[in-house]
Design goal:
Layout lengths: L2 H11 L4 E5 L2 E4 H17 L7 E5 L4 H12 L3 E4 L6 H11 L3 E5 L3 H6 L9 E5 L7 E2 H7 L15 E6 L9 E5 H11 L11 E4 L6 H12 L3 E4 L5 H11 L3 E4 L1 H8 L14 E5 L5 H10 L4 E7 L6 E4 L2 H4 L7 H13 E5 L4 E5 L12 E6 L11 H7 L6 E9 L5 E6 L4 E3 L2 E3 L1 H8 L5 E11 L3 E10 L7 H8 L11 E4 L14 H8 L3
Parallel strand pairs: 1-11, 3-4, 3-5, 5-6, 6-7, 10-11, 10-12, 12-13, 13-14, 24-25
Antiparallel strand pairs: 1-2, 8-9, 14-15, 15-16, 16-20, 17-18, 18-19, 19-20, 21-22, 23-24
């Protein structure tokens, strides 16, 4: 199934239902389809052909969604770019993707214009919001395009729909081609099509659309005929107001956002009773944040989703019964559920196989830490024009190497231990930083913490904790180490603690950049 058919289906079944609610604008599914048709017609007249790329540099907006579907409708490849990049990074990514068209948000127009001479593939710059010399107007392209339904090219399931770049936390960003079948495989298995009789669901979409989680939420929402309450970027007050105003039933956030939401002093001032599902992912969620979330959203389904750019969408998740704490559980059952919610990514999705393997490629038994590998129809076939990195990304027998370390328990639940580069090896014992960080996050004085390995003559490596305390709190190194004593095995406990005042460095989705911490605090 082609991703543009997600929109076609909803426009046919629920044409009058609101598809997008964004900053005072509301478009029904029929209106959204018409706008996509108009833009596709204009892009066709600009010469965009099947297989050619159209990139975008902009924060979340309704035009972003339209540009995606219009590009794919032509058989083109949509290339979302991280809006936090600098000019040098923009030049690298655009020249890697070689788009014919570049959509540019007004706030990025000057940067794009400055880089114009270094972007030889771009034939047309299209400004979103306002006008800019030397750039075509997005609004004028919408107005001048034909609303008639047309077939511009024969598009197949195997054709690339989206070229998404990784975060580049381990080097230069890698281009990941995602074909139509990668998204359709997920939504057809996990999302119900529009129900014309039932009340519509509303998703608050705040995840950036250049990130796979944002794109997955968009595709699921459109296929399901849901109303997408779109936000440019995350802001706590705006998030509360959006959920309340739109009576949102589903929200997706990263743990950093979730922490700010549940700890916000004005939380009780808003009516969030409509929320039924809270999805979190893209980074480990601290244990105490989950405890607070369960208090704030009692009886709601909590979904810890695990996936990556290379997998196009979620490949593992907890079952429905694992995601809800009813209050009727025994204390032991409650603690087991909390642990799974905090550290487990659940069980593999139906169309995906997952194993934990050692360095020799052998599958490991329950409880032993190794690399998580995956296989299935949604896994990428290879990186964009990069045979060397593609070869390294797969095992000899064709399994994708996620780079994440973890283990499975006796029931098959998968637990993350950190990235392969982050694994700490002390005296031959593997230590996953996520486990230690989860314990540190329960200390009442700690705002956030991360763990790295530092060289040690005797043991090879020792555990070091980088800790930021809550405002007004003080603590000693020994106090933090002693707190871990009854909660962690001796070899896993931090042997040193570094206190910092600034927020820990993170990616745009809230993952702590341990590599940066190692460079700064990794000396013995």
């Amino acid at each position: 199934m082609i991703i543009t058919e997600f929109l076609d289906l909803s426009a046919m079944l629920v044409p009058e239902r609101t598809a997008i609610a964004f900053e005072g604008k509301r478009y029904s599914y029929a209106q959204l389809k018409e706008r996509v048709n108009r833009l596709a017609d204009s892009l066709n007249r600009l010469g965009l052909e099947k297989g050619e790329r159209a990139a975008i540099l902009e924060v979340n907006c309704s035009e972003y969604m339209e540009a995606c579907f219009a590009t794919v409708k032509l058989g083109g490849i949509f290339v979302p770019l991280n809006f936090r990049i600098r000019q040098e990074e923009l030049t690298y990514l655009v020249n890697k993707a070689e788009p014919k068209i570049l959509f540019v948000g007004s706030r990025y127009a000057d940067m794009a214009n400055s880089a114009r001479s270094q972007l030889p593939s771009v034939e047309h710059f299209i400004i979103i919001g306002g006008k800019h010399q030397g750039m075509l107007s997005y609004d004028e392209l919408i107005a001048s395009g034909s609303a008639e339904e047309k077939t511009f090219a024969e598009v197949n399931d195997e054709d690339i729909a989206v070229l998404m770049f990784t975060a580049g936390t381990t080097g230069l960003p890698k281009g990941v081609p995602q074909d139509n079948s990668a998204y359709s495989s997920y939504v057809l298995t996990n999302v119900d099509p529009p129900d014309m009789e039932a009340p519509p669901e509303t998703n608050v979409l705040v995840m950036p659309l250049y990130h796979v989680a944002g794109m997955q939420a968009l595709m699921a929402g459109i296929y399901g005929g849901r109303t997408i309450a779109l936000m440019r970027q995350f802001d706590e007050k705006e998030w509360f107001e959006t959920v309340q105003r739109e009576k949102a039933t589903r929200v997706m956030v990263v743990p950093t956002m979730l922490k700010r939401i549940v700890e916000h002093p004005d939380f009780d001032q808003y009516d969030l009773s409509s929320v039924r599902v809270v999805t979190y992912g893209a980074a480990a969620c601290p244990y105490e944040v989950l405890r607070k979330t369960i208090e704030r959203f009692p009886g709601r389904a909590l979904i810890n989703a695990f996936g990556g750019t290379e997998t196009s969408s979620t490949i593992a998740a907890l079952r429905a019964e694992d995601q809800v704490i009813t209050g009727k559980e025994t204390e032991q059952e409650r603690e087991r559920k909390l642990k799974r919610l905090a550290t487990s990514i659940g069980l593999p999705m139906d169309d995906v196989e997952i194993q934990v393997r050692d360095e020799e490629g052998r599958e490991l038994p329950a409880g032993e830490i190794g690399e998580i590998v995956a296989k299935g129809p949604r896994i990428m076939r290879g990186y964009w024009r990069d045979e060397e990195r593609t070869k390294k990304a797969f095992t000899p027998d064709g399994w994708y190497r996620t780079g994440d370390m973890g283990y499975v328990d006796e029931e098959g639940y998968i637990y993350l231990s950190g990235r392969a580069d982050d694994l700490i090896v002390r005296g031959g014992e593997n230590i996953g930083p996520d486990e230690v960080e989860s314990v540190l996050s329960t200390h009442p004085k700690i705002e956030e913490a991360a763990v790295i390995g530092v060289k040690d003559i005797e043991w090879g490596q020792q555990v070091r904790a980088i800790v930021r305390l809550r405002a007004g709190e003080t603590a000693t190194e020994q106090e933090i180490i002693d707190f871990c004593r009854p909660r962690l095995a001796g070899f896993k406990r931090p042997s040193s603690v570094v206190f910092v005042e600034e927020e820990l460095p993170k990616t745009s989705t809230g993952k702590v950049l341990r590599r940066t911490l190692r460079e700064k605090y990794g000396q013995t």
